[in-house]
Please model this.
Amino acid sequence: PDPEVTISKFQEMSVAPDKITWTKILQACGKLGKLERLSEFHRRFQESSCQVDPFLASTLIGAYTKCGDIQSALRLFMDLDPINVDDRVVGAAISACAEEAGRLEEAQEIFASMRSKNIVPSLHTWTAMVGVGGINASKYAIDDILTRIKDNGMRLDAPFYNAIITAYGSCDP
Model:
């Protein structure tokens, strides 16, 4: 669906939006990459009676990342109530770190906080960590991730292997 149409229809609504509607509008703002619009709708969401849940939190983090505001995405993650943190949210925050070089330590801290909260990382989260390692050209970080995944006995998929190959390709020989 066209994000502009989604936003237009949202603005025509005469009833209070629910979480699903908020999620769709925030996703549309992210797809458009318009930070000003995202910030406006995020503010309106905060003023509504709806509460953040893990799915909405990961949507917000992803939308801010798509709009190029990595700082806001990570701030959202750090400010979340622990009850709203699950693997989707952590994966979104780690993916935000993958958008910019120099964020390897932040991604590792986020990942460590996830593990300390007994949240089991999915393959998507591991793949995001590999991306951060590649962006930062850290062969050591990529090797460590690969070893930890193998130790967990996780079944790997094509996107993960693509991320590994891309990440190693970014590292110096």
